[in-house]
């Protein structure tokens, strides 16, 4: 199961980034600021689960008042970037830092990005060999895990079929002379 998860994650990530790069539009983005964004998850009695973005200080205060077991707060680092669209308009968007790899960049720095023309909020770092290596490594780990997991059952399946054919051929070989002897 773990092998399948790794293989699907690695293959899917590689496919997604490659397709985004092929269909996307290249741009140069300016890092405006690093933002700590919080998401609050809670459920009121008789209602569906809620998931809302909130300033981190408010989210943490809400969690302290209500209780950690009733309110979950997740923190994400996002980069607010600005870039020019194909039509010349300027576009601002908050992007997960992991998609851009902009953790160590200072505000004001520029970085090459690729955005989806039909959804300019879908912005990713320009694909690099390092990204491809990560996805290929995850995919390879998954394939190796699947091979190790399935090697035993496949070997026994093919081994059983091979033994059965060998056994049948042996039976025919051994019984052939006796059939020949009975005819005379």
Task: Write a structural description.
The protein contains four helices and six strands, in the order H-E-E-H-E-E-H-E-E-H. A hairpin with a 5-residue loop joins strand 1 (25-43) and strand 2. It is an alpha+beta fold and 184 residues long. Strands 1, 2, 3, 4, 5 and 6 form a six-stranded antiparallel sheet that branches. Helix 1 packs across helix 4 (129-183). The chain folds into two domains: 1-20 and 126-184; 25-116, no CATH class. The protein has helices at 2-23, 56-66, 97-100, 129-183; strands spanning 25-43, 49-54, 71-84, 90-96, 110-116, 119-125.
Strand content is: 25-35%
Q: Overall 3D geometry?
A: flat
What is the C-alpha radius of gyration, as a whole number of Å? 29 Å
- The oligomeric state is single chain
How many domain modules?
2
According to DSSP, the number of beta strands is 6
Straight-line distance between termini: 62 Å
SSE series = HEEHEEHEEH
DSSP helix count?
Answer: 4
